[in-house]
Amino acid sequence: MTIHYVQIRDGAVVNRIVADGRLPAEWFTEGETWTETDEAQIGWSHDGRAFSPPPRQPDPEPEPAPVDPRDVKIADLEAAVSALKKANVLTDAMIAAEREVSVKPR
């Protein structure tokens, strides 16, 4: 007859085995317990009386949609055009200010 045992250390299941009968006495060390159970798995907790599965992990975030490289290039081009427009505005303003200075008599 096979028996399922779990090893409990600090309130957590750290090992699980299937044995043909009783476990050897040398397997029982201080601070650790071997207990017969059919349900508990590694990672479960044990409060001294009952086993509890670990908390359910949240579902992973969905993968972002793939980005079309053409969209990235368009966005980059739009940003560059915007920057050039700003630069041209500054250049026009600088040219206008320079004309104003050169036209004024000294």
Protein traits:
33% helix; 2 domains; 106 residues; alpha+beta; 23% strand; single chain; 3-stranded antiparallel sheet; two-stranded antiparallel ribbon; rod-shaped
Verbal overview:
With about 110 residues, the protein is α+β, with helices and mostly antiparallel strands. It folds into two domains: about 5-50, no CATH class; about 65-105. Helix content is about 35%, strand content about 25%. The mean pLDDT is about 80.
In short:
It contains one helix and five strands. By secondary structure, it is an alpha+beta fold.
For the largest beta-sheet, the strand count, sense and barrel status come to: 3 strands, antiparallel
* Sequence stretches where pLDDT stays below 50 over 5 or more residues: none
Strand order of the largest sheet: 2-1-3
Average pLDDT level: 81
Which bin fits the share of residues in helices?
A: 25-40%
- Contiguous helical run count: 1
The oligomeric state of the chains shown is: single chain
Strand content: 15-25%
Shape estimate: rod-shaped
Summarize the helix and strand pattern as letters: EEEEEH
Number of domains: 2
Radius of gyration: 36 Å
Terminal Cα span: 112 Å
Total beta strand runs: 5
Structural class: alpha+beta
SSE layout and pairings?
Layout: E1 3-9, E2 12-19, E3 32-36, E4 45-46, E5 51-52, H1 69-103
Antiparallel strand pairs: 1-2, 1-3, 4-5
